[in-house]
Amino acid sequence: MPKPICVDLPYPTTEDVCADAYSLRIISPAYASPESELNAILQYIYHSFNFERKGYKEIADSLVGIALTEMHHLDILGSLILALGAPPVYAQYPATGFNFYSAKYVAYSRTLENMLEDDIIGERHAIAGYEKMLKCLKNEQVKAIVARIVLDEKLHLQTLETILKNFKGC
Fold it and tell me: Closest Cα partner for 146 from 2, 3, 5, 28?
């Protein structure tokens, strides 16, 4: 079983986080939206199947390792959303009957190279989204959690760029 690809630092706890509608509104899109942890998980697993099928087990395992870390991020964000005062449903906040997450947001590229490029784009968007959140957040506990997640996303970006470079034979 592949190991998670993450920075070797602890994640801040959600234990003492109190209800905070402002922070909730800011961080919720990271949970279940087109550029969310949920979407990243599904995309990495889909891409890993394709790499495995074409005989690139090491790359497939790396994608699963990134997905495992994204699953941990989803778990952290779900706990954080609960602590901030809302149920962690797979929808953009505020949840309505019309904005539930859809797997149509997964990049279903046809070539392996495009899959890696899509994953790189996804990590860049995730980093930019989290950094924007950090500028808006006032709650220091929530900021610490988001800042720790960003460290993993930057490692994922670096990992994927290296994989793509090696895959292309550059």
Answer: 28
Token output for 117: 């490029």
Closest CA to 68 of 167, 8, 152: 152
Query: How many residues does the structure list for the chain?
Result: 170
Element (H, E) at 165: helix 140-168
* CA torsion angle 11 16 20 23 (round to 10): -10
Please state the three-class secondary structure of 89-139 as a single string.
CCECCCCCCCCECCHHHCCCCCCHHHHHHHHHHHHHHHHHHHHHHHHHCCC
> Between the CA of residue 25 and those of 81, 88, 131, what are the distances in Å?
9, 12, 15
* Predicted local confidence at residue 129, as pLDDT: 98
Buried b / exposed e over 64-99, threshold 16 CB at 10 Å, is bbbbbbbbbbbebbbbbbebbebebeebbbebeeee
Q: In the structure encoding, which two tokens stand for residue 146, read together? A: 């988001």
Mean of the pLDDT values across residues 131-153? 98
- Regarding pTM above 0.85, the answer is yes
Phi-psi region of 169 (alpha: psi -120 to 50; beta: other; left: phi over 0): left
